[in-house]
Write a structure and sequence with these properties.
By secondary structure, the protein is an alpha+beta fold. Helices cover 39% and strands 24% of the residues. The mean pLDDT is 91.
Length: 74
Amino acid sequence: RITLELTPAATERLAEEGYDPIFGARPLKRVIQQRLQNPLALKLLQSDFRDGDTILIDAVEGEYLFIKGIPVAI
């Protein structure tokens, strides 16, 4: 079991990338899969994270950072 936490910057970035004026939030699922799920799956396969870890996801300069650590109250 892994816990994911997103910073406000990551949440805002997802909202920007996942919203389209014509399609609304339909692209959000694709953005989550491509920008979060796929990179996270690779990191799990590379043993960067283990069962019980808390992963903080942040967005810096348009990129998502996966930071292993202690849960942070945001």
